[in-house]
Design a protein that fits this description.
By secondary structure, this protein is mainly α. 33% of the residues lie in helices and 7% in strands. The chain contains five helices and three strands, in the order H-H-H-H-H-E-E-E. The protein has a three-stranded parallel beta sheet with strand order 1-2-3. The longest helix is centred in the N-terminal third of the chain and has 16 residues, at 2-17. The protein is globular.
């Protein structure tokens, strides 16, 4: 968990260096799910302004609705940082396969994968 925390802090610092926009470094940030992308797309900006680093990590880990549609995602990974997700909107991306990591999402009830590059859907036993 400490390694994950340090990685999230590094991503948040990089996000802030890019003036709060993952789009400035889209090739890196928009490829997979990460703290910067979640911060940009899923956390209220007014709340972020008054948060310290630990509060931001808690906010990221507490996200229940992931609105990552059209974010340029090539793959889904790092799902352990969104284990509280109940809704995941990842339509209109470039996702071609699904990872085994969906086991992290025990609370997931809604998943939108429309308009991606998927040829086969596997590893979704969590939604059974």
């Amino acid at each position: 968990m400490e390694v994950q925390r340090e990685q999230m802090l590094a991503e948040m610092r990089k996000y802030e260096e890019n003036e709060g926009s993952w789009k400035r470094d889209a090739k890196k940030w928009a490829v997979t799910i990460n703290a910067a992308l979640i911060t940009e797309r899923c956390i209220d900006k007014a709340q972020l302004a008054g948060m310290g680093e630990e509060e931001r990590i808690s906010a990221i880990l507490g996200v229940t609705h992931l609105h990552l549609d059209g974010a340029g995602l090539d793959r889904i990974e790092n799902l352990e940082i969104v284990s509280n997700a109940t809704h995941m909107f990842v339509q209109n991306n470039n996702i071609s396969s699904l990872p085994n990591e969906f086991d992290w999402l025990t609370k997931l009830t809604h998943l939108n994968l429309a308009h991606n590059q998927l040829e086969k859907i596997e590893h979704l036993t969590v939604l059974d």
